[in-house]
What we know:
Strand order of the largest sheet: 2-1-3-4
Distance between the termini: 59 Å
Order of helices and strands: HEHEHEEH
Number of strands: 4
Structural class: alpha+beta
Amino acid sequence: MKRPPWSLLALVAVVWLASTAWRGHVAAQDGERLAQRVQPGDIRMMSSETCPYCLAARRWMTEQRVPFTECEIERDAQCLADYQALGALGTPTLVVRGQRVIGFDRARILQLIGNAG
Length: 117
């Protein structure tokens, strides 16, 4: 079997690096826009102890200095009751200015913050 030419491998590497850099740039822009518009109390995240998506959302919002509150459904009875009342199907479940967002969807959060602010 022939090996792919080095130029093809180099092209794939460049495209992958550019795509990764672009996603990071967009994420940072989203973070700046949210940090400017979000007030304390605007975002509440209901999470789970074992949820990797919750960890990623927490890390991103903390790094971008987006104010949010968080509760864990396994440790906080009121959090679990609120989670169940929302009919949430998974974690993280966020409440953004009164609107439910299931999963960490930066675009939806920006839309809710932009439309409500």
